[in-house]
Amino acid sequence: MSKSTYLLYLGCAIPSRVLSYEISARKVIESFDVELVEMPEFNCCGLPLDPISHDMMLVLAAQNLCLAEQQDLNIMTLCPGCNGTLRKVNKTLKEDKRLKERVNGYLSKVGMEFKGKTEVKHLIQVLTEDIGLKKIKDSVKKPFKNFKVAAHYGCHILRPYELIGIDDPENPTILKELIEATGAKYVNYENEMECCGATIIISGERAAASEFLGKDNISLQLARDKLIHLKEAGAQALITLCPSCYRMYDFNQPIIERAFNESFKIPVLHYPELLALAMGFSPDDLALNEHRVNPSEILSSL
Amino acid sequence: MTKKETQLEKAQEKEVFRLSGADSHFKYEVSKIPGAEKLMLCFQCGTCTADCPVARFSGSYRPIQILRMAQLGMKERVLSSDDIWLCATCFTCTDRCPQGVEFASVLRALRNMAVEEGILPPGFREIASTVLKTGLANEITKLRLKKREEARLPPLPGSNPERIAKLAEIVGFSKIIEKKENKNV
User: Fold this and answer.
1) Using a CB-CB distance cutoff of 8 angstroms, which residues of chain A are in contact with residue B60?
2) Which of A114, A142, A184, A223 is most exposed, with the fewest beta carbons within 10 Å of its own?
């Protein structure tokens, strides 16, 4: 399999709500010597169904892996949720022969077979492992000066460590290095590794609508906690890697501001947007107007 | 007996759990599920709960309690509890547990068991039916497809809901999500 060609697995969160991530990721990746091939078809990665049926999650992930095997290509993902699920299932099925047999028993009924000959990487692995920090630094034409940004890695890009293994979940550095490559200054803040809460915003839907988007919602409390710490640390923007985390801090920021009667106004950028801007792409190239917390004011003040 | 006293008695009755009513096989049932094998290794140190982001903001969600209840065989209370739907799957507990219990996976096993008993929160039911209908958990609207075109993004590859529905039949998923709640749980 060629190292510089990947099958792009978009997942559903990005095309359904967060196009800005896809736009910037494609621009960045295609600027380097990496070719992206569209998936011939793509289905749910399986993650959202794991709470309901672990077996259903396994077959959904496995049939996506089979599609990549049929193309004889490795997968690149953007969503850490999809990435974690596909990586975990790929690794588990390769190592656990009995489980592989069981899953293949299901898949054979739809004419598919998991062979275990594809690899799954997230965008930041392609950036750091295939392209490398040096090439990334060399591509920066307009380095940021005096831009203080903080990072939210998101849980699924790092945990569970045994199955993901991209970086140390207790003290990761991969995103810090990528951010510093753009010239931006990396700001530390309290409780940096705290979860965004996006995965249980759905559990809140069991409550009444008023309660759902109010102060009692645990997801909103978690996201608010992070916004408070970011403000205290003087971060001018937050950099994320996950469309769900992004939605918690960007889409839901005005909702949090209303519910708690507070003001944050902290723009949230996907990492490839930060890099693309430093590479010289304009905010118009990147459809930055999709962001609910408008980053243009901060960007033009730099 | 006044109405108030009866209510109090009922509340106490609900709080006190008698081990004679426990399901002593429950822990074995749970431990058989992939990911939940190490349930009995939990020695109640509380690392999972101290490090849990949800427990910080929830008045009732305590991983340590759910683990103990499962070990003791409090099947009905665990499976019908709203709390088992509050795990954010951040896997901090999984990575930090000194006994390697993998609480997030134990909880997933408990959720799967609750679904088998017909308990499925509406938000999750909705996702399940969207996946069966469209092949994806989030529906991609026509507006989004138009925005893709405007942004000159390549057309989306189609999903294959027919295959997904067929796999759902084979795995038994379709049957599970149609189940009605078993009132004894």
Assistant:
1) none
2) A142
